[in-house]
């Protein structure tokens, strides 16, 4: 199911209700489906059909909707809320969205792949993120998923129906942060919310300055005064200490790239400010890890085993596959992970073999140069010396004897061996 990032603020996606597309805000801490019926004929007393993800044709019927008048506008003109909270029933004891989807999915889980693309090509509803139903996709994350148990508190307590985790510790720059006990994974919250005492320490360690918007003017305020809606600004070029979370034996880091948002001012001079993506929590001891946490960590919500899986999100298509995750991957076909085929082995090229010409070597060196030289000497000597025929005959016989002797000696010489 494709979803839009909506100004990097919230996730919204289209759901078919009774055959019509309705844009809904994705909310993992709610269990109900809320619809603004101001200009709609839907009635809460009747049931309606809905379809999740037009590309997957996942349908559930007889979903009961709660209605509201929409006094507070939702982001990106969304017409309601799609609750994906961890509960089989809604606040009115009706079957929840996950309760309806459970018998239709291969595995009772869904995964969120969240990118940082903001309104691609100026379209606020450009769908660069997605929800995967019934499993997860290893191509969207690196290495293997790390699982964290959820549901540590009773239903009547703080996070009813929410995806809550035990936060064993939080720290910034190696210093522990106080009031770190629990965390909620929430797609309807963009920033990270934290207790005031933790926020104060993060601001102090990173030497931030704070402002508050007063009639469209930024007014300096005390960062530790405990006010809400305070904008904390960082030096864009300064070092920023990472924020770490320790949950269920695993450590997760948020860096400056994740926690500081660069805003180019509309002055035409390329001026910029860098704003902190942390804000004060509405409760005293809880953290809320919003969508910016999911832009760093691919997140899997397993509502059958009450757990959440995290892995560093892959910027592109990850080609590696985790053996431990393969059985619930959406590409799983019942077969083991294919072993990459090794490239064909090319036999090394042998050096050319030099064949000895044993016949020629065994005969010894050629006699032609020796005979030719002897004849040339004989002719020159005869021409220079002159003389009668008898003397020429004697010389000729003598030279022939020399020639034959040399030929005989050369014939007995050992053959040359090619090295």
Automatic annotation (TrEMBL):
Residue segments, region Disordered: 337-363, 400-419
Keyword Hydrolase: yes
Entry-linked InterPro entries: Aspartic_peptidase_A1, Pepsin-like_dom, PEPTIDASE_A1, Peptidase_aspartic_dom_sf
Transmembrane parts of this sequence: 366-384
CDD domains the UniProt entry points to: pepsin_like
Compositional bias ranges of the Pro residues kind: 337-346
Keywords: Aspartyl protease, Hydrolase, Membrane, Protease, Transmembrane, Transmembrane helix
Family: Belongs to the peptidase A1 family.
Protein name, entry field: Peptidase A1 domain-containing protein
Organism: Fistulifera solaris
Classification lineage: Eukaryota, Sar, Stramenopiles, Ochrophyta, Bacillariophyta
């Amino acid at each position: 199911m494709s979803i839009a990032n909506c100004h990097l603020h919230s996730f919204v996606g289209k759901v078919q209700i009774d055959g019509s597309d309705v844009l809904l805000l994705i909310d993992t801490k709610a269990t109900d489906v809320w619809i603004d019926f101001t200009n709609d004929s839907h009635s809460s007393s009747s049931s309606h059909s809905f379809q999740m993800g037009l590309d997957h044709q996942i349908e559930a019927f007889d979903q009961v909707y709660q209605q509201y008048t929409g006094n507070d506008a939702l982001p990106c003109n969304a017409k309601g809320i799609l609750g994906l909270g961890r509960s089989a029933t809604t606040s009115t004891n009706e079957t929840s969205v996950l309760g309806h989807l459970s018998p239709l999915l291969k595995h009772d889980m869904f995964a969120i792949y969240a990118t940082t693309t903001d309104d691609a090509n100026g379209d606020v509803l450009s769908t660069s993120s997605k929800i995967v139903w019934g499993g997860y996709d290893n191509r969207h994350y690196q290495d293997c998923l790390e699982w964290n148990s959820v549901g540590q508190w009773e239903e009547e307590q703080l996070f009813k129906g929410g995806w809550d985790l035990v936060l064993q510790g939080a720290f910034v720059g190696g210093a522990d942060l106080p009031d770190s006990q629990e965390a909620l994974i929430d797609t309807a919250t963009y920033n990270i919310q934290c207790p005031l005492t933790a926020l104060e320490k993060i601001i102090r360690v990173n030497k931030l300055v704070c402002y508050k918007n007063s009639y469209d003017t930024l007014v300096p305020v005390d960062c530790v005064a405990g006010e809400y809606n305070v904008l904390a600004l960082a030096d864009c070029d300064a070092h920023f200490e990472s924020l770490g979370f320790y949950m269920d034996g695993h450590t997760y880091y948020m860096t400056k790239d994740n926690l500081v948002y660069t805003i180019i001012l509309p002055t035409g001079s390329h001026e910029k400010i860098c704003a902190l993506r942390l804000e004060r929590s509405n409760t005293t001891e809880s953290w809320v890890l919003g969508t910016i946490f999911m832009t760093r960590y691919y997140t899997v919500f397993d509502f059958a085993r009450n757990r959440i899986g995290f892995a560093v999100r892959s910027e592109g298509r990850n080609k590696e596959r985790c053996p431990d995750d393969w059985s619930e991957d959406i590409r799983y076909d019942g077969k083991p992970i294919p072993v990459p085929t090794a490239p064909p082995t090319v036999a090394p090229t042998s050096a050319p073999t030099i064949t000895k010409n044993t016949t020629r070597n065994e005969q010894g060196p050629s006699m032609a140069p020796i005979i030719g030289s002897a004849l040339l000497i004989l002719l020159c000597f005869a021409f220079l010396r002159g003389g009668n025929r008898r003397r020429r005959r004697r010389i000729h016989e003598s030279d022939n004897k020399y020639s034959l002797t040399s030929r005989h000696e050369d014939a007995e010489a050992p053959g040359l061996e090619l090295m």
